[in-house]
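FAQ: What does the model actually see?

It sees only this:
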Amino acid sequence: MNKFTTPDLPYAYDALEPYMDKATMEIHHDKHHAGYTTKLNAALENNSEYFDQTPEEILQNIDQIPEDIRTAVKNNAGGHVHHDIWWQTLRSGQDNNKPEGELLSAIESSFGSWDKFKEEFDAAAMTVFGAGWAWLVLDNGKLAITKTSNQDSPFSLGQFPLFGIDVWEHTYYLKYQNKRNEFVENYWNVINWEAINKRYIDNK
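And it is asked to produce this:
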């Protein structure tokens, strides 16, 4: 039985400075993400057949999970998967950071312009009430901006998340306190568009 594991960060804890601080990255990855993984494994302990699936497949078919463990599996599989996407779609800061090629063309076609897309994405991130995520997803092959509460997953809604911004307070509170707007603004500097473009091309 191969239980789920927390992947290592693909860069150093301080790689996203000054936009995301080292202390937050350590806590976020080693405590929060690892905690989701541990609790997902515990929730499935007596239903080990689900370890044959990927966490994404579990979320895509969440209604098939036994009802007594479904909420725990949804929350912790969501936390595990979403954070894996989060780490993969971040990189060291770059000025004028934006996608190129096919993804940029798709964004401009879907939202009217790059600036309009950023405006709509920022609005989604700022209007998540409490904890949750804002996402750029593929929905029936089309780009869409959406948001989810807590660790509810686009995968469970039949969507494929290309990237998302984690607006749980543990993501930014040590550095930004309650200033979510500053965190959202600085987030654009550390988005890994190369990785996101690959997710788009592989899944469109």
